[in-house]
Amino acid sequence: MHPAQELEELLADGEELTIVCHNNPDPDCLASAFALGRIAMAAGIDEHHILYSGDISHQQNRAFVNLLDIDLKPFDPAAVQDRPEGSLLAFVDHAVPGANNRVPEGTPVDIVIDHHPNEGIEARFIDHREQVGATATILTEYVRELATEMDAALGTALLFAIRRETLGFLRGVTSAEYDAAGWLHEHADGALLRTLSTPSITGATVDAIAEAITNRTVRGSVLISGIGRTSERDALPQAADYLATLEGVETAIVFGIVEDGVQLSARSTDSRIHIGNVLDGAFSDVGSAGGHREMAGGEVPLGIFADYTTDDTQLFAIVDQVMTARLVAELNLTTEAETRTKADGEDE
Asked: What range(s) does the DHHA1 domain occupy (predicted)?
């Protein structure tokens, strides 16, 4: 039986569906949740909710939610822990309670659909495919298999998510993404896709990216940069994407203080490095981190850092030293030559 049919049978026995996005959801997670909600409605579930925690701060993500009119609700623990009988709980684009989500560890999950590396996944229905480039690819397969009613909003959401997750079919892409995109092309709104691809950017995001450029440190082909405190969490992956294109750089890691934690974003084209494993090895004992071979992220609670000082400049000096030291040690860069670019453009 095709996984889509197994999922449909499970949904047909449910009365309500709660779909939980991972923290700070991206288009792949949002589009997958959107599609799963449509599949659930077709299977006879009248009520479903899409919950998220963290922020939707990236300008593309905000435009994505607003223009496609995706109905999101802030995460409510009671909606997960006090569900009535017949209510199903689903994870899309993440897999384990407590890992990149606010669902308490040990919470029973009914449905998991994900493409990220993970272990210890437990659910009544699991479709975990590390080999595909996007969770939206899996949901597109379901929509096709089940002949789910399509419209421009759903088609655009899934196609944009696949394009964004694979960086325009250049990162982690497989033949499944091309096949899904070819089919979705007939259902998507081209003008809306262009609008989503070129959203306006805030001044705070520009400032954060500029800070990452100024503070970059290069050891061999590895670039590490800390940007201090920022309100623009999604400036970190944008900065990592940009810095990874610098000549001679194969791995770029950017971190900064966002609210009460240190957020990280990393990119790598070095075949010797699995950047998800690098972040996991460096920070799994103090936070949560991981991801794919070429793209990863993480979060470390400020915790003890914040006990030293309330001054952001002094606080980040401590954070910068500790985070960089852990990354250097995990990447075995201690003997590599270092070039630090200062604000005045001089190297030391």
From this structure: 221-301
Same domain, 218 and 157: no
Count of domains forming the chain: 2
Instruction: Indicate left, alpha or beta for 243 from its phi (over 0: left) and psi (-120 to 50: alpha).
Output: alpha
Lateral strand order in the sheet of 251-258: 288-291, 295-301, 261-268, 251-258, 222-229, 217-219, 338-340
Residue 51: give its domain's CATH number.
Answer: 3.90.1640.10
Q: CA-CA distance, 150 to 187, in Å (whole number)?
A: 7
Do residue 50 and residue 189 come from a single domain? yes
pLDDT band at 344, cuts 50/70/90? very low
73 in helix, strand or coil? strand
- Tell me the pLDDT tens digit for each residue of 256-312: 999 889 999 999 999 899 999 999 999 989 888 888 888 899 999 988 677 766 778
69-72 contacts: CB < 8 A, separation 24 or more?
69/153, 70/30, 70/33, 70/34, 70/157, 72/21, 72/30
How far is Cα of residue 293 from the mean position of the Cα atoms in its chain?
Answer: 14
pLDDT of residue 48: 94
